[in-house]
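Running this now, will post back.
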Amino acid sequence: MPQRDPDVAYWERKVAADRDTDDALYLAQLYRERGLLEESCKLCRDILEDDPEHPPAMAELAETLFMMGDRLGALKCYEDAKAFGVAFSLEMAFRRALCLYAAGRIEEAEKALLELLEEDPFVDGPFDALAGIYEETGRKRQVNALMRRRNKMRAVQEREGRTIEEFIRVLTGGHRKLGRR
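Update: finished.
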């Protein structure tokens, strides 16, 4: 019989003893990080059953459902969390855009991906996903323009030897801060 992860075992005991929502949410995240996706889902749903308006549990459930391949379920949770003002990391925002695409909401997915590229022009995922959307919808010119843009950004970054933060600061004259708006 495999030994239980000591961190998971500790948090399971803690949650069973005190039923603290923050601890339960942390355990759900730990489950997800350890690949225990069913356990993470169940715990998030338990939290939401007790408090249907718990945005962090909505966001955690969205992340877990995404990892399980349930793009439509994840999208609903991302949208619920967003409606309650949860600020998404760039990675979460990217996964939400992929869910929009999976739901057939192509224009919304495209807009979300363009916003991600505006925020961080060096992330490959949004470039690739957007190129896929352009390719699927027959917009060859946009695919070519997008790839030229990515190559130009990479060349400048390599030539200048700057970090992304330095590059954006120089590019914008120091007026734009990184991070979610």
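Residues 176-181 have pLDDT under 50 and may be disordered. More later if anyone needs it.
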